[in-house]
Amino acid sequence: MRQSHKLPLVGLLLFSLISSQLCKICEVNEENVFRLNPLLSTMINSKYISGTQTANVLLSLKLVGVQNQALIQRLVQQLKDNVERKVSNLSSGQLALIIMALGACHTPDETIIYDYHLIRHLENKFAVEIVHMETHNGNPLTNYYQLSLDVLALCLFNGSYSTAKVAEYFTPKNKNYYFGGDFSVDTGAMAILALTCVKRNLVDGKIKTDTEDLRSISNHIELLVKKILSEKKKNGLIGNTFSTGEAMQALFVSSDYYQESDWDCQQTLETVLKKISQGAFSIPTAAAQILPALMGKTYLNVKNAYCANVLGNFSVSTQAPVTVTPPNSHSNILVHYSVRINKTYSINVTVPNGSVFLDVMEEAQKMNKTLYSFTMEESSWGPYITSVQGLRANSNDRTYWELLSGGKPLSQGVGSYVVHDGENLEVRWSKY
Ligand code: B12
Questions:
Q1: Ligand 1 residue neighbourhood (C-beta within 6 Å)
Q2: Which atom number of ligand 1 is nearest to the Cα of residue 382?
Q3: Which atom of ligand 1 lies nearest, measured to the CA of 409?
Q4: How far is the CA of 246 from the CAs of 204, 293, 426, in angstroms?
Q5: Quick check: helix, strand or coil at residue 283?
Q6: Which end of the chain is flanked by fewer CB atoms within 10 Å, N or C?
Q7: In what order do the strands lie in the sheet with 382-388?
Q8: CATH topology for 332-431?
Q9: Which H helix or E strand runs over 378?
Q10: Of 3.40.50.10190, 1.50.10.20, 1.20.120.160, 2.110.10.10, which CATH number belongs to 26-313?
């Protein structure tokens, strides 16, 4: 009699284990691994303009088990120089990424973290972010994507942080998850990874806590998962092309919070593979952020002792990454360019076919320096516009220069977005 009661229970347990496994099994199979080559070429053949780009690439390559020691050592050395020269100039999230890249998969370079006391530096930077929020109307020094990276790195590498503060600040109601009213999928995904790490440590008893904190962290994950799933598009992308990799990672680690039928992971995977073949991930950071999920890995695997898999023996290809060659690159095109602050200043600009947004801005600046002057800073995603007409973006008041085409926000930066004949381009003074 007792047996018969237990059997369905065991069956149910097995079923739930299998079904939650099924949600996770969604990675490129061996026959399709060659379709990832453009990502690897982009990462490997790039010049690494910033330490953050190097950290993103190293973290990604280590997680998928690329064993090329010469390459890995070159990247490690760059990060070591970076922390030696300017740890105090790094933002909290930049340092968190460097720690995760150096510490991934228990390789010998993990010692750099301890030699340079990087965890202590990160604890201080995270504390400064919290103080900044408390004194600046809830605005962090950087953003919630970086605060999530901070918590994730502190959690993975046994740094100290307050679980009560994490439970308080990471509520999905917090305005920092939203840009201009829209939920930021990248930010929500990174927060799920961080909160899942914290939750696992609490459940394993690695940190003592109030059960109330555990309950609210679990509720936050549940709500964030709902928000991420509501950003799923018909073709399977989650948010946009560039947030999908991180959203996949978040969904891999949170499969207890949704049904298998809520997400067709295979469809997402297939669409991403198509995007790769179209050259969508031509920036090293973009390639680095999408790759781990395609191999079934997440940033929570950073603490795995062994990361190698089918990509272990990947040999470095010197073949150029996929680039989309513009047709008729000798002819010129005409675009309409505007700067909008309170009023709109417009100009028609002629540029060679195949030009990017930045070429248009440079041409307009040449034509009228007073109205179209601008400044930019290099970042891990390419050039970031910091000021136009001398008006500077500032995270204390959540202002930035938004890029639009035909009145719609672009999902690429000025260095990557290829402009079209007759297009209406705009940089708009906006609040996020
Ligand atoms: C926070 C954030 C912002 C903030 C940045 C200010 C702040 N307070 O931090 C705001 C809301 C202002 C913003 C603006 C834009 N963003 Co943004 N942003 C992010 C986010 C969520 C996190 C960035 C971060 O902190 N990374 C971690 C740290 C450690 O790395 P970092 O290199 O030091 O970070 C800096 C740069 O990333 C820079 N930055 C932020 N966004 C962008 C976008 C571009 C194109 C560039 C060159 C730089 C840049 O600001 C960060 C802080 O200083 C990422 C998501 C992601 N997956 O990376 C998107 C992301 C980088 N942004 C993106 C985009 C498209 C934009 C905009 C072009 C949107 C628009 N239509 O105007 C603008 C940039 C316009 C410009 N002026 O050049 C895309 C880039 C995709 C691509 N292929 O280029 C991403 C990946 C989001 C997405 N999934 O679409 N962004």
A1: 52, 91, 93-94, 97, 142-143, 145-146, 179, 184, 186-187, 239-240, 242-243, 283, 286, 289, 379-385, 395, 400-403, 409-414, 416, 432
A2: 47
A3: 71
A4: 25, 7, 29
A5: coil
A6: N
A7: 374-379, 382-388, 391-392
A8: Ferric Hydroxamate Uptake Protein; Chain A, domain 1 (2.170.130)
A9: strand 374-379
A10: 1.50.10.20
Lowest mean pLDDT: which of 18-27, 60-69, 83-92, 157-166? 18-27
Query: What are the tokens at 150?
Result: 């901070």
Report which of residues 334 and 67 the model is more confident about: 334
Local confidence band at 210 (pLDDT 50, 70, 90 cut-offs): confident
Give the integer Cα–Cα distance in Å for 349 and 336: 6
**Can you give the pTM of this predicted structure?**
0.93
Task: Give the number of other Cβ atoms within 10 Å of residue 47's Cβ.
Answer: 6
Q: Where are the domains of the chain?
A: 26-313, 332-431
Which residue, 154, 151, 148, 157, is CA-closest to 189? 148
Q: Which among 277, 218, 280 is positioned nearest to 244, based on CA atoms?
A: 280
Place of tokens 């950071």: 285
Phi-psi region of 102 (alpha: psi -120 to 50; beta: other; left: phi over 0): alpha
384 CA distance to ligand 1 middle (Å): 8
Q: Which residues pair with residue 60 across a beta bridge?
A: none
DSSP for 140-188?
Answer: -SS-HHHHHHHHHHHHHTT----HHHHHHHT-TTSGGGEETTEE-HHHH
How far is residue 223 CA from its own chain's centroid? 20
CB 250 within 8 A of CB 276: no
DSSP bridge partners of 400: 430
Q: Comparing 14 with 191, which gets the higher pLDDT?
A: 191
Fold matches, 26-313 and 332-431: no
Determine the residue of 125, 177, 186, 291 to mutate for testing ligand 1's pocket, defined as the one with the most ligand atoms within 8 A of the Cβ atom.
Answer: 186
Q: How remote is the C-alpha of 346 from its chain's centroid?
A: 34
Count the Cβ atoms, other than its own, within 10 Å of residue 212. 10
**CA pair distance 76, 99, nearest whole angstrom:** 11
| Angle value at C-alpha 185, between 181 and 190, nearest 5 degrees | 125
pLDDT tens digits, residue range 27-39? 999 889 999 999 9
Quote the CA–CA distance of 198 and 155 in Å, as a whole number. 6
User: Ligand 1, atom 54: nearest CA belongs to which residue?
Assistant: 186
CA distance 384 to 375: 9
Tens digit of pLDDT for each residue in 73-110? 999 999 999 999 989 999 999 999 999 999 999 888 99
